[in-house]
Design brief:
The chain is an alpha+beta fold. 34% of the residues lie in helices and 29% in strands. Strands 1-2-3-6-5-4 form a 6-stranded antiparallel sheet. Helix 3 packs antiparallel against helix 5. The chain starts with 26 loop residues before the first strand and ends with a helix.
């Protein structure tokens, strides 16, 4: 099973099947650490879904990204605020995503500040998504330690509102297929119906 290009097309798992068609739409969950070998990535879960089988290689796309619950819990402290935003966005190539972003503050903040933080996080998502492809958006969401990532861009905005401890993209749920996946699945469906008619 091959990871998408943004993760260097590394082989992430072996999935047994009697027939290649049985693998289509099968999902496998692994951590980002399994791909990068970087211990700081151990809290990021990735869900890959197979959309194409070529020989012994099963090609996948990212179906979802999620931070481990224990890790999120460890960031929540008393006398500080946790501000969450769940927002739907559409990427440049027309993929619909539901993104959950969370900001943790150093101290408890006012309702007006929470509102401003939420609106700043929303602004970043709405400005980045239409300008980036699906794969690029996933990369910006997953590698939060890299410059220009979604978390870093949000941090840059919200730290002007109140003192911030951490900003994370906690979850990305893919609500529609990326164009290359939809195309491949449509092709397979056409071949299947042709074979059924033959």
């Amino acid at each position: 099973m091959v990871a998408p290009e943004i993760f260097g097309k590394v082989v992430v798992a072996s999935v047994p099947a009697l027939d290649p068609s049985q693998l289509i739409k099968r999902t496998v969950e692994i951590t980002l650490y399994d791909i990068t070998g970087d211990l700081t990535h151990v809290n990021t879960k990735l869900k890959f879904q197979i959309y194409k089988v070529d020989g012994t290689s099963a090609y996948t796309f990212v179906k979802g990204v999620e931070l481990m619950r224990d890790y999120l819990r460890s960031l929540t402290r008393r006398k500080s605020s946790k501000i969450a935003l769940i927002h739907n966005v559409t990427t440049k190539d027309g993929v619909n995503l539901r993104v959950t972003a969370i900001t943790w503050t150093q101290f408890r903040c006012k309702t007006s500040q929470k509102k401003a933080v939420r609106s700043s996080m929303r602004e970043v998502l709405e400005s980045v998504a239409p300008q980036t492809s699906f794969d690029e958006f996933i990369r910006l969401a997953v590698f939060s330690d890299q410059e220009g990532s979604l978390a870093q861009q949000m941090l840059g905005k919200v730290k002007k509102i109140c003192s911030i401890r951490k900003v994370e993209v906690a979850k990305v749920k893919v609500l529609s297929y990326p164009p290359y996946v939809a195309e491949e699945l449509a092709k397979q469906a056409a071949q299947t119906s042709q074979a059924a008619r033959a």
